[in-house]
Structures are given as structure tokens and as C-alpha cells.
UniProtKB/TrEMBL annotation:
Lineage: superkingdom: Bacteria
Biased segments, Basic and acidic residues type: 263-279
Region spans: Disordered: 248-285
Signal peptide per UniProt: 1-44
Pfam families assigned to the protein according to its UniProt record, in alphabetical order: SQHop_cyclase_C
Protein name stated in the entry: Squalene cyclase C-terminal domain-containing protein
Length: 440
């Protein structure tokens, strides 16, 4: 899934999807702290940093400055999940974005130039790259170095922030848990140097329990400060608490476990009991998170709402997709079916506008729910995703004719400016929603 709790922090995709707003929030935070004159050039609105020509192998046709590694990672991971072998140029581009210390940033226009103190290393693209490269295989050293860097910036509470040294947040902690699991690590065994806390210890601190209002119980906050329920953070955490990453294997035909919302003890109806729900049990915490998500989905017509300013009553497609994956991770077939149906009917325009990471997120939704990604509400998601990047090296099944419009979907279109002129992309509610302290 930013050092400022009041700013937005969510990707497609992720999981989902979504990343541009995190980069903008991080960059703006750096400016506020250091002053515009001291801000790294890449985030000070310098036009020289925007690539004149997109690199070979990169997915999408739009500026990758804030989401290049993220969208590439999700695209490669989604293709691998459905049996598509990506082009070597696409995989090599991603691996080549790594800094010498193992970290990744949002995008390096000059990967041959060493990362320095001004390079804004970020746990989110690092964790996304780990999940993609671990799945593809053949990049063991790259994955090992990235995991080593992630471990080195673990916070004392056991969690992670987007930027090292900042307060932990639920989204970053969740995506790192997914990376650790994908790399063959046991997240519960990765402990902080001070305090010896695990990633699950850190993640569960963000959950609202019996001391919260009745309709907020079980939700996760993005960060502790403010502790407002956040639907995207809840979806990410409900998946992460189960030790899962972007790829969630389908539970199997007929699997349908009832959702169990947080139930406070009798006599504690006033919310005066424990502040945390299942604080020592990640599985119980995930169930409570799922209960909150189902309540919100039911309330809003089987979709979650955008947290973008002025758009609070508009559907958030990416956030809804994250929620479906979270429910599928808990084998909640019936609970996932309704929002899945909503996505099949309503996600096509969003994906076309948003680009490769959005298509990838929907492919991963289809995979988690056992749905055919080549016939998702009338859209061949695999063909559409393939059309946004270099021609795959091989496919497990011949795709239908590529949609021409998909070639124009390159990450996130520019629709606005934050603070110092940072661009926020079109169709990225999933990017922004998790970073707002919204009460979805």
C-alpha cells in the first residue's frame, strides 16, 4: 500500500490496487519537511525528470514517474498468474530498477545511475517488485536483496511505513507481509530489532475494537494517529493478516465460510472493553475486518465509496476490488459474489482509463474468485493487459484480438495538482482511498 497520516496513501491495484497518490503524498511531505528548495529534484516538479521516451519493456503509455515500478510489478504478476510469460524486456526493466542496497523507488529514469541520498526509496514498490520477481523466478539475488532491505527498515512496532523512518501504516505493512510470504519467508518470524515485534503485531495495532463505535468495529485505520476506519486499509489488512499478498489462490468450488463480524462481550455494549479486536490472533482480526467490509458493501450497493475530495459518494472500483480479494482470501464465497458481480458490470471504463495496473488488479480478482479473466463482464482482461506492454514471450491460451484502446492506458492520467504541482492520475480512487482517513 506515506509519512503524513493526513495525506492519501493507496495502487491498482493494490492490493488495490495503487500508487500515484502515495508518491504524491510522500513527495509533498518531503517538501513540507525540507522546504521546496531542498526537495529532491524528481519530486520538485522538474520537467527534466519526466522521461522524453518511455523505456523499452515498460507497461503503459503515460508518465511512470510516480507508479512505474508498481504498475510493472502488478502487470507481470497478473500475467504470470494466468499462464502468460512476459517479455524478457519487461522483466529486465523491473529488475533493473533496483538500487544497490536492494530497495526500489517509484521510478528511476536513469537506472544506470547509482541511487543516492536523494533517491526516495519506498517499501511499497519494493514489496510489489518482490512479489512479481519471486513469482516469475530466475531473480533470486534481486529478491533476496530487496527482502533484506525491507527487513532493515522494519519499525520498532513490527510494521512498515512507505518511507523508512516514518510511522507505520496498515497498507505498507500489509504489502510487505505479502512480499515476505512470496519470497518464502515466514512473516511471523521477522521481528523488529528493538522490541522483537512481528509484522502481525504491528498490523493488528491499527484495528478498531470494542471501544470504537458499533459500525466501526473490526475496521482498520491507515495509521494510529486519528484512528479513523479506512475501508482500503481494512481490505489490505484483512488479506495481509492472513499472510497473503496480491495473489490469492481460489478457495475451491463450493467453499463458503460465513463472515464473522467482531462480536464484543456481553455487558460491553457501551464499547468500554478491549480497544483491539483479536489483538493476538491475526486470523480473528482478518475475520473482523471482513465483517466491516461486508457491512460497508451492503450499505453502499455492493461497492465501496471513493475518498477523493468531492467524490465521496462515487464508487471506488479499485477499493472494491481489494475488498473482493480480501473476502476471497477468507473463503467467503457468498460475501464476495455480490461485489464481484458489481465489478463485472462496472469496472470496464475504469480499467480502460487507468491502464495496466487496473487490468492487473481485476485479473487478480478473477483469479482469487475462480472467475474467467478472459470473460470478465464481457471484457478479456488478459488481452487488454497484454496490449499495454511488450508482446508476451508466450501465452497459455491464445488471447482474443487486443483492444486498441487498452494501448493508451498507461498507469494514471493527469487530472490535478497537489501542492508543488504533483500530478494525480485519472481513475485512481483505489490509489487515494486508502491514504485518506475516510470513514467509509
Amino acid at each position: 500500500m506515506a509519512p503524513m497520516a493526513s495525506m492519501a496513501h493507496q495502487a491498482p491495484l493494490t492490493h488495490s490496487v495503487a500508487f500515484l497518490a502515495r508518491r504524491a503524498a510522500t513527495a509533498l511531505a518531503a517538501v513540507l519537511v525540507l522546504g521546496a528548495a531542498a526537495a529532491p529534484a524528481a519530486y520538485a516538479g522538474s520537467p527534466s525528470m519526466a522521461p522524453k521516451k518511455l523505456p523499452d519493456g515498460l507497461y503503459g503509455s503515460k508518465d511512470p514517474q510516480y507508479d512505474g515500478v508498481w504498475r510493472q510489478s502488478l502487470a507481470l504478476l497478473a500475467q504470470d498468474t494466468v499462464g502468460v510469460r512476459p517479455a524478457a524486456s519487461a522483466v529486465n526493466w523491473l529488475a533493473g530498477q533496483q538500487c544497490a542496497d536492494g530497495s526500489f523507488t517509484a521510478f528511476r529514469a536513469e537506472p544506470g545511475k547509482p541511487c543516492d541520498a536523494k533517491t526516495l526509496r519506498d517499501t511499497n514498490p519494493t514489496a510489489a517488485a518482490v512479489q512479481a520477481l519471486a513469482a516469475l523466478g530466475g531473480h533470486g539475488d534481486t529478491v533476496k536483496k530487496a527482502v533484506g532491505w525491507l527487513k532493515s527498515v522494519q519499525n520498532e512496532d513490527g510494521g512498515w511505513s512507505s518511507m523508512a523512518g516514518s510511522a507505520s501504516d496498515a497498507n505498507s505493512t500489509s504489502v510487505v507481509i505479502g512480499a515476505l510470504a512470496a519470497a518464502g519467508e515466514k512473516p511471523q518470524s521477522v521481528t523488529s530489532k528493538k522490541g522483537g515485534r512481528t509484522p502481525f503485531d504491528g498490523l493488528l495495532t491499527f484495528q478498531l475494537g470494542c471501544a470504537a463505535k458499533g459500525d466501526e468495529r473490526g475496521a482498520f485505520a491507515f495509521q494510529l494517529k486519528g484512528a479513523a476506519p479506512n475501508a482500503d486499509a481494512t481490505a489490505a489488512a484483512a488479506t495481509g493478516a492472513r499472510g497473503k499478498g496480491f495473489v490469492v489462490e481460489p478457495a475451491g468450488k463450493g467453499a463458503d465460510t460465513p463472515v464473522k463480524p467482531l462480536s464484543c462481550k456481553d455487558g460491553d455494549k457501551e464499547g468500554k472493553g478491549d480497544k483491539k479486536a483479536g489483538a493476538d490472533d491475526p486470523a480473528q482480526a482478518a475475520e473482523a475486518g471482513d465483517g466491516y467490509l461486508v457491512a460497508q458493501l451492503d450499505k453502499n450497493g455492493q461497492h465501496l465509496l471513493s475518498a477523493m475530495p468531492g467524490a465521496e459518494k462515487q464508487p471506488d472500483v479499485g477499493n472494491t476490488a481489494d475488498a473482493v480479494v480480501a473476502l476471497a482470501a477468507g473463503a467467503h464465497g457468498t460475501a464476495a459474489a455480490k461485489p464481484l458481480k458489481w465489478l463485472e458490470k462496472n469496472s470496464a471504463d475504469w480499467a480502460k482509463q487507468s491502464g495496466p495496473a487496473a487490468y492487473a488488479q481485476l485479473v487478480l480478482v478473477a483469479h482469487a474468485t475462480g472467475t474467467d479473466p478472459r470473460s470478465f463482464g464481457g471484457t478479456d482482461l488478459v488481452a487488454a493487459l497484454n496490449a499495454t506492454g511488450p508482446e508476451p514471450a508466450a501465452t497459455a491460451k491464445k488471447d482474443t484480438e487486443d483492444a486498441d484502446d487498452a494501448k493508451d492506458g498507461g498507469g494514471l492520467g493527469v487530472v490535478g495538482v497537489i501542492g508543488i504541482g504533483l500530478a494525480i492520475g485519472a481513475g485512481i480512487g483505489f490509489l487515494l482511498s486508502s491514504r485518506k482517513k475516510s470513514r467509509l
